[in-house]
Design goal:
heterodimer, A: mainly alpha, Non-ribosomal Peptide Synthetase Peptidyl Carrier Protein, Chain A, 3 helices, globular, B: alpha/beta, Peroxisomal Thiolase, Chain A, domain 1, 10-stranded mixed β-sheet, two-stranded antiparallel sheet
């Protein structure tokens, strides 16, 4: 499974949606994921890819990690996974 | 209803091993937050905290006691000794029969859990010390104080996360005010600064890696502390009759529940607790000169708390002072309200308002007088102490000069 599909599966599970209902343009808010859901999603992503995501809930816009959409999250994860390889 | 006064105070925390050292550090705007020192700290992404340093339990307790005292109990006993000694009370007869201990703690013996889980899971041991349970239980500290000082009345522990000690002190206050007890020992203790304790907090992603900067626009989270604050709450007439030194009067309290979210604070819940404490105390909002804020340094708490204060006090919100001492001693979780009550006593007794240190950048969502970076001399008659916990449980105490 590609990184993209894995991330979408994790987000879909958190949002209690089918992966096919999650589009790249969606924001987490649109998917009904609140701040706790976000922290849980990041934890699940870290576990799935064995990476550390630099994210502080107090300053999400200042983190190196862009959470503004599903696409930006996938791009961020791809970068982190590539850096680790 | 009986009037209730504070006749003894004791503490140990990152700023000092007693009240005098702590208040001096608060006046100086000293920061007790440093690099954490304990086993496996290098495996943590958060490595700073308000840790009690230079405290060796061995000199204070014997070997038998040490097998029973978790660090949170050690802190409680150190602070209780200072408070009860200052009060001059000896618990005998009726005073002992009805006197008790109400303490707050969020975690109890966290490092005892940590050490013993490590022994059985990581090291593969199949046996633990026989006193693990009495050492880690949440009420261990309250029980040991009761045993040490012969307090035979109502004793128990309150656990409401970051509001634990304010809930505990509210309870003790009610007991003295209602006439149930002439004197109660109360406050809180916490010691979560061990690998497992900090690792659990890391998971929430609300901790700062560099500093606690309450109300500052560039704040980036909370920093944990540890320690205890213990007080003697006494019936006013009883204290006067024996000529006791009175530190301050407790005049009211309120507790509310947000009933909304397990971690996000609510402005309404906080505001109802603040206004409830004023109403219970029979004081007008414009009498309040200082508020010791919950002020955790997280994005969510600080703006919610400021909005709640603005709602309750209206135009007077711009005149009163509000500071968070957590930037100095860290967030002591279940003990935090107890250590912060010392800043309230200092404001009333010494006319010194403890500063919010680490303040760097104005935040329009926290546009109150937060006493940035330097302590201030001011004459205040009424102060409040706020505590707002995870789980949406809030407790606010009102104190008055005497």
């Amino acid at each position: 499974m590609s990184i993209k599909d894995k991330v979408i599966n994790i987000i879909a599970e958190q949002a209690v949606l089918e992966p096919s209902d999650v589009t790249l343009g969606n924001t987490l808010e649109e998917l009904g994921i609140d701040s706790l859901g976000l922290v849980e999603s990041i934890f699940a992503i870290e576990e799935a890819f064995d990476i550390t995501v630099p994210f502080n809930a107090n300053e999400p816009e200042q983190s190196d990690f862009d959470i503004s959409s599903v696409a930006s999250i996938i791009a961020g994860i791809e970068k982190l996974v590539a850096e680790q390889a | 209803m009986n009037r209730v006064v504070i006749t003894g105070a004791g503490t140990i925390n990152a700023l000092g091993h007693n009240v005098a050292e702590t208040l001096e550090a608060m006046r100086e705007g000293h920061c007790g937050i440093e690099q954490l020192e304990f086993r496996d700290v290098e495996r943590l992404s958060i490595q700073i905290g308000g840790q009690v340093k230079g405290f060796e339990a061995e000199g204070h307790f014997n070997r038998q006691q040490m097998t029973l005292y978790d660090r949170f109990t050690q802190f409680s006993l150190m602070a209780a000794k200072e408070a009860i000694t200052q009060s001059g009370l000896e618990f005998t007869g009726e005073l002992a029969a009805k006197g008790g201990v109400v303490l707050g703690t969020a975690g109890g013996g966290v490092s005892t859990w940590d050490d013993n889980y490590r022994a059985v899971y990581e090291e593969g041991k199949n046996r633990v010390h026989p006193f693990v349970v009495p050492k880690l239980m949440m009420n261990a500290a309250a029980s040991h104080i009761s045993m040490e000082y012969n307090l035979k009345g109502p004793s128990f522990t309150v656990s409401t996360a970051c509001a634990s000690s304010n809930h505990a002190m509210s309870q003790a206050y009610q007991m003295v005010r209602s006439g149930m007890s002439k004197a109660m020992v109360t406050g809180g203790s916490e010691s979560m600064l061990c690998f497992g304790g900090v690792k659990a907090w890391e998971g929430l992603r609300v901790m700062s890696k560099d500093a606690c900067r309450p109300f500052s626009a560039n704040r980036n989270g909370m920093v944990q502390g540890e320690g205890a604050g213990i007080f003697v709450f006494e019936d006013y007439e009883h204290a006067r009759a024996r000529g006791a030194e009175i530190l301050a009067e407790v005049v009211g309290f309120a507790m509310t529940s947000d009933a909304s979210d397990i971690v996000m604070p609510s402005k309404q819940g906080a505001a109802r607790a603040i206004s409830g404490a004023l109403k219970d105390a029979g004081i007008n909002p414009d009498q309040v000169g200082y508020i010791n804020a919950h002020g955790t340094g997280t994005a969510a708490n600080d703006k919610t708390e400021c909005a709640a204060v603005a709602d309750v006090f209206g135009p007077h919100a711009d005149k009163l002072m509000i500071s968070s001492t957590k930037a100095m001693h860290g967030h002591l979780i279940g003990a935090t309200g107890a250590v912060e009550l010392l800043a309230c006593i200092m404001a009333l007794r010494d006319g010194v308002i403890a500063p919010t240190i680490g303040y760097e950048e104005f935040d329009p969502e926290c546009a109150l007088d937060v006493v940035p970076n330097e302590a201030r001399e001011a004459n205040v008659d009424v102060v409040l102490s706020n505590a707002f916990a995870f789980g949406g449980l809030n407790a606010v105490l009102a104190l008055k000069k005497i």
